[in-house]
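ok here's NAD-dependent epimerase, seq below lol
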Amino acid sequence: MLIGKGLMANLFQNYKNDSSIVVFASGVSNSNETSPSAFFRERNLLEDSIINNPNSLLVYFSTCSIYNTSMLSKPYVQHKLDMENLIKDNFSKYLICRISNVVGFNGNSNTIINFLIEKITNNQNFDVWKNAQRNLIGADDVKYIVHKLIRDFKESKTVNIASKTSIDILDIIKQIEIFTNKKANTNLVDIGEKVNIDIRDIEIYLDEIETRTNGIEYFKTLLNNYYSV
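and the structure came out like this:
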């Protein structure tokens, strides 16, 4: 069963008629969300999923932003942690997937790369936390890894789904400038932090994905795959 729409839901259409698996892709996706109604909606839908599918494997998408201290106090991150606890307390079989920054063009300006490309392409001014890093992973690579995790499922667990190497935000912007042939109009703010994400649970799958490229080279590949006309 597939619950939701948008980028993440589109990746898992092949599960929509499988009653043994519930792929919950209807959660709040904007990390800047503050509306209680948006959070209540996800909670209610998740609770209904628990009641109606007690014997199914639940696949839930959470966030790696919990590892970023500057993000931890955000309502979005606290909400995701609450949903994780709700699942752990009520579902017998679950796979909580904490996702890093997904790259895959779908018109959603809330994703970091879509945001940056839109700002740079349109010469719009924006603030940049110059000490920050972001961990980027391709949408199709998320699909591949989650499919493998479902296939190999043995016990309920929480898994980080991210690439091997986090990238400095200034290096990400530089590559987008090269890709778009436009200069970013930025205000540099002297804040931000490094990102460290434990990917040991999926390292075997990342070895298949990032055999020839990782880090900034991996990001270049993602730009070409998702944003080339």
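fwiw Residues 2-227 form a domain with the Rossmann fold fold (CATH 3.40.50.720). kinda neat tbh
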